[in-house]
Amino acid sequence: MTSQHEPEQYLSFQSGADIFACNILQVKEILEYHRLTSVPQMPAFVHGVMNLRGTVVPVIDLAQRCGRPASTILRRSCIVILEAGQAEQRQYIGMLVDAVHEVISLTADAILPAPAFGNHLRPDFIAGVSHWQQRFILLLQMDKVLSVEEMASLSAPAAMQIKAESHCLMN
Asked: Which run of H or of E encompasses 145?
């Protein structure tokens, strides 16, 4: 068990204008972006699948998973391979991000609760907020963002319905 003053390490990365971080213990590797194989009837945020040493790994677009427009593939775009799911059903999932920055150390007392308003993410996606390089960084609750059960339940028609409903709420 860590104390309030023992730092934990987080991988910081960018999606659009936002800087995010996740616990480094969930990160398995960081790969240069390469073309993925698309899969029909998947939610829009599932960018495709890739072969990772003989294992088929789904890759989600973090921007779309967070309700933003699809990421544009840039020179620094990469895929962060994370381990997600419950202990008995752990699996690798790739997450498309615009850029990976660095590993940062944060103590528990440097992490603030997420604000209750003014945030564009689902509250269950955010583990906390911290200050880093003169800006705020959102610490993601990766087990929620990469919830295998939730993503599996979102077939293409269901994802289209959710998208239509959220568009109506925004107008």
From this structure: helix 142-145
DSSP string, 24-44: GGGEEEEEE----B--TT--T
The neighbour count for residue 92, using CB atoms within 10 Å, is: 19
Amino acid at 37: T
At 27, list the tokens.
Answer: 């990160």
- What residues have CB less than 8 Å from 100, skipping those under 6 apart? 11, 12, 13, 14, 30, 76, 78, 80
Q: Give the tens place of pLDDT for each residue, 74-99.
A: 999 999 999 887 667 778 999 999 99
> Does the structure show a pLDDT above 70 at 113?
yes
- Cα angle, residue 22 at apex, residues 20 and 24 outer, rounded to 5°: 135
Output the pTM of the full model.
Answer: 0.80
User: What is the C-alpha separation between 44 and 78, in angstroms, rounded?
Assistant: 18
- For 153, half-sphere exposure in the C-beta direction (CA atoms, 13 angstrom radius) is 6
Q: Mean pLDDT, to the nearest integer, of 15-38?
A: 93
Across 32-46, b (16+ Cβ under 10 Å) vs e yields ebeebeeeeebbbbb
Two tokens at 118? Answer: 């003014």
